[in-house]
Amino acid sequence: MTKPKQEPLIDLCRQRGLRITGQRRVILQVLDAADDHPNVEELHRRVGQREPGVNIATVYRTMNKLAELGLIERHMFGDGRLRYEPAPDEHHDHLINVETGEVIEFRSDEIERLQEEIAQKYGFEIVSHKLELYVKPRKTR
Question: What is the maximal distance between C-alpha atoms in the chain?
């Protein structure tokens, strides 16, 4: 699934009144450029390639602040590490390859419809949900 281009995190942070320091700017740019779901250690490594003096604690604090503001989503894909992505404009779900760790984003109108139908059947309305499918490649015979 190709991500639709959304407003840069730096602009969203400014709109929410978050001060943009030089280190935060680099962290936001790296996160915006990510086409995966990096954990803090991976973000720190990427940030360090652009701005060597950024401490990992600064990355942690920035990610916590972004989550508090609702600008990023946190995911735990079964490997024990929190992974991050900018909060998407449109809902999507994830396939996680248990052999490689690859994460594939997808959207299915049929799955969304079924979830609504099931919630209604039991007298509920969905306020939020995450669907993560843990997969492995099919074995060919």
Answer: 57
Which residue ranges form the domains of the chain, and what is each CATH number?
A: 9-86 (1.10.10.10), 93-135 (3.30.1490.190)
Q: How far is CA 60 from CA 16, 36, 84, 94, 114, in A?
A: 19, 18, 11, 24, 37
**Would the pTM count as exceeding 0.90?**
no
CB 89 within 8 A of CB 73: no
Each residue's pLDDT tens digit, 79-105: 788 899 888 778 899 999 999 888 999
- The three-class DSSP label of residue 42 is helix
Question: What is the torsional sign of CA 103, 44, 78, 69?
Answer: negative
